[in-house]
Design goal:
Layout lengths: L5 E5 L23 H12 L3 E6 L4 H13 L3 E6 L21 H6 L9 E5 L2 E2 L2 H12 L9 E9 L10 E8 L5 E12 L4 E3 L8 E3 L4 E9 L3 H16 L11 H10 L3 E7 L5 E2 L6 H13 L10
Parallel strand pairs: 1-2, 1-4, 2-3, 6-12
Antiparallel strand pairs: 4-11, 5-13, 6-11, 7-8, 7-11, 8-9, 9-10
Helix pairs in contact: 1-4
Length: 309
């Protein structure tokens, strides 16, 4: 078992809004992807193993474009999030093509992750300091009360996570005075406006304004392997109670399930802050900004021209 924390990357998404397999789409002239910069930052911060959660259908391309280079620098494992990786009593709804969500993706790692671990999206850039903060917590986790699973998350201000080109999904957080998470609400359609931001929960029939300084989860979590037993319960509850509400599109989200564990006094979540700006490619139109941002970071000396040489 690794004595260092493990980095788990959520890369099984279908990229439907982006219109392609954005996980392997280069964002600089050297052919690097956002995921390369994430792994580079994590390894130099002190992570010791990388676990990719992907779909089996993209394994060959993924290994050639990303995994093989990373495997020369650290231990690499692959986990496959497939529709049929579910209990035998669950019947997949006819016409269902979406994965079961981020909680299900993380649960797929239970056989290969035995140490404290971080979870990130493969298509988001989180910044250098976030990984250093995560490693410090995972090496010395402190729960808010005895017996609780000690988790953490890195939060970002909503205004620093919006795109000009469409809506985004964000987990909106509330904390106590000691910066422990007390509540998290998953809003699946938030969009930027001329004066701030707004969200809808009924496919645009009505909209509600939201404070752009709201702290949101970008799926950057620090977790313990004990979470897998709880996620098994989460998925059983999802299939019994939630899936039938929207058989083709409902998903089990990790922010909601972690929030449930907090409410049930099973876990504490320390909310950490990052000094870096988040950015990502949610839509094709976001890519030029990301490429420009990465180039500026290279010019500032944050990254070398070639990450894996």
């Amino acid at each position: 078992m690794s004595t260092k924390p493990t980095l788990v990357l959520l890369a099984a998404g279908m990229g439907s809004r982006y219109g392609g397999l954005k996980q392997i789409d280069p964002i600089d002239e050297q052919g690097h992807k956002i995921i390369d910069f994430s792994i580079y930052d994590a390894l130099r911060a002190g992570f010791g193993k990388v676990v990719f959660i992907i779909k089996k259908s993209i394994e060959k391309d993924f290994r050639e474009c990303i995994g093989d280079a990373v495997a020369k620098k650290t231990e690499v494992e692959y986990v496959f999030q497939e529709q049929d990786a579910i209990p035998g009593w669950v019947k997949i709804p006819e016409g269902r093509v979406k994965p079961w969500g981020t909680a299900h993706a993380i649960l797929c790692c239970k056989d290969v992750v035995k140490e404290p671990f971080a979870v990130i999206n493969s298509d988001d850039y989180y910044g250098v300091s976030a990984y250093k903060t995560l490693v410090e917590f995972l090496k010395n986790p402190v729960a808010s009360a005895d017996g609780l699973m000690p988790f953490c998350m890195v939060g970002y201000q909503l205004k620093n996570t919006l795109t000009e080109h469409g809506s985004v999904a964000r987990g909106c957080c509330r904390m106590d005075d000691a910066q422990y998470l007390t509540h998290i609400e998953e809003l699946t359609k938030i969009e930027k406006t001329a004066t701030g931001a707004r969200y809808t929960q009924d496919d645009g029939a009505s909209w509600t304004d939201i404070d752009i300084n709201t702290l949101v989860s970008m799926n950057m979590w620090g977790l313990q392997p004990e979470i897998f037993a709880e996620l098994e319960k989460s998925m059983e509850r999802f299939f019994k109670e939630e899936m039938e509400k929207n058989p083709l599109k409902s998903e089990c989200f990790i922010p909601i399930e972690v929030g449930r564990m907090v409410n049930e006094k099973k876990a504490s979540v320390k909310v950490l802050s990052s000094e870096d700006k988040w950015f990502g490619v949610t839509y094709k139109e976001d890519k030029p900004f990301v490429m420009e941002s990465i180039q500026k970071l290279k010019e500032q000396g944050v990254y070398p021209e070639k990450l894996w040489d």
